[in-house]
Request: fold
Amino acid sequence: MPLSAFNGIWSENKEVPLFTAQKSYTLWLEKQKVQYLQQSMSLLADTKLYSKIGAADSISNLKPQQVEVTAQKGDWYKVVSDQVTGWIRPSPGKLVVVEDLNAAADLKDNANTYKYPDAFSPKVSSLGPQTVQVIGRWSNWLLINTNNGNWWIDSRHIELNSTSEEAAPEVAPEAVVPETAAGAA
Reply:
């Protein structure tokens, strides 16, 4: 094919990769079996609620809260919240079982805090070295209590104090690193 034919061929075929990905996902989801659960989990970010798996339009928008998960199929979860029951398909880190923790931890270097435990979630701030109060854990993420709220931090940037389970400090003022300095770090 001559290079001059590229634009025409591209116009006719540019939708093929997206169609293929969507079809592959549909086929994968159809092969998944429903697993029935009874598990309380934390929904950590706004999430659309659907009447059924794959519905085009959501029936509600759930705010962060504790939900009862009653079933799972693939990456869809059937949840019961305070007002409604339906299916959600949360992004990674948005639906987790948070282990309660009461510990002090030393932040050795500058580190970012996030709305929920996923490096692609919205960044809240950058913290400088300090001691922080850890109130929860999920996977390799720690939930810390700050003066500006509870935020998640990657545990690779923080070291739990060995005796912190008994005597955790009060919430210390944050040493917030300006964005320009955080980007250079």
